[in-house]
Structures are given as C-alpha cells and as structure tokens.
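We modelled the chain as a single entity of 254 amino acids. Its sequence is:
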Amino acid sequence: MVLAGKKALVTGGKRRIGRGIALALAEAGCDVGINDLQADEDVAQTLGLIAERGRQAAFFAADISSATQVEAMLAGFVERFGGIDILVNNPFYARHQPFLDIGEEDFDRTLAVCLKGYFLCSQQAARRMVAQQRGGSIVSISSVHAQVVWDTDTCYGVAKAAILRLNQSMAVELGKHQILCNAILPGFMDTDHVFGETLPPFDPALGPPRAHHTPTLRCSTPEEIGRAVVFLCSPAATNITGVSLPVDGGLLAG
C-alpha cells in the first residue's frame, strides 16, 4: 500500500468521482474522511466501503463556501485522525444556463463552491501541514471545461479554469514546505451525470454516453480518477507539483 498510514480528506466525497477517489485512497492505505453538506445513504455507503478496505472512515458535514465551517471541519478531521497528509478538493456544483440568462446568485454560488471552497479548504489544510512539518499533497479536481468551452458552461468553466491558476499559486508558495499541489482534469465520465445533464443508465452494448467524443472511444471512470489522485500523492510523484493532469481519454488532445 503506497500510502499506508496517510490521512486523507476528500471534499464532495460521498459518490461518483468523490467516492472513486476515497476508495482508491483507502485501497492505497489511507484513513479517509469524506465531506458533504449532510449525511445520507450515499455517505453511509461510502463510509462502509472504506471500512471494508480495512481503513478508518469518518464523515464531516460542512458547507465549504463558509470559512467558519471549513475551519471547524479541518479541526475536527485533525482531532479525529491525528493529522492531515492529503486533501482532495472535489465538490460539485453546476447550473448550465445560456450566458444571457445567468443570474448573479447562480454565478456567485458556482464560484463560492467550485473556487472559494477550494481556496478555503486548501488554506486550512496547508496551515496544518506546515505545522506538522512533514509535507503533504493537495489535489484539486478541475475539468476539461477549464480549457474547452461548451454552450451554457460559463460559470462552471470559469470556476474550473480558475482552479488551475489557484493550483499553480499554491504550488509555488507551498513548495518550500514540501506540500505538492496538483490538479486533475476529468473529461466525460461514466456516471449518471455528465456536465450537468441526467443521462440514461450505462448500457455495455452501446458504451457510455458521449464516449464517441474521445480518442479512446470511452469515458473515464471514478476509479481512474482515484488512481490518478493516488499517483500524485505517492512516492512515484515526489517532485511533481503545479501540474494539470487530464484524465479524459485524449479529449483535450483530439
């Protein structure tokens, strides 16, 4: 287990990509905390799956757009696990609207969750990593929307692009503390939601929806995103920081 004994927090970690990341970290040897707004059946299931992998698991309810709640969440995580080695920023919020129809509240909420929340969680985690004096890893989940524009993706795309710039700033300033900061850009995903749309269930005979847009002719899976996170946090990536890694089946290259 390449990350045996590490303590990892995954925001937005209860399902889909977040669950894939949490389980990959658990399989690599991490004790894992997951965050979302409130406990529900998805949270219980993910915690159970982490425990099945022999690792400690805990849930931390918080609205990551609130500095007060984020500080309390990180304090609770460190109290529960004795420290923090890995933070994965993975909250999801998107409302896809034509540019002319976007309201101020929609714009503000998207950036509050998908950018401000990344900043707040990263800052609180990094402060604790610096105090621990043993380095750490921060991985931020962006999107191919950061680099490719679709109709109705203005708010989401702006936030995802800004995450890449935030990641670079963190990498530059936190490198001296041996805190590595990297981003992952998922493309079309084999989940029940793709870029805000509710899609039909996956049919093995037809392939995942939207797969024909990628050079590999298939969508990525949450497990693949999770494995990419593990790699960036592992001894195989000890001097990699400030990068943006697409896990998109070649979508950005095509």
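As a brief sanity check on the tokenised model: Residues 7-247 form a domain with the Rossmann fold fold (CATH 3.40.50.720). Helices lie at 16-27, 41-52, 67-81, 104-132, 154-174, 222-233.
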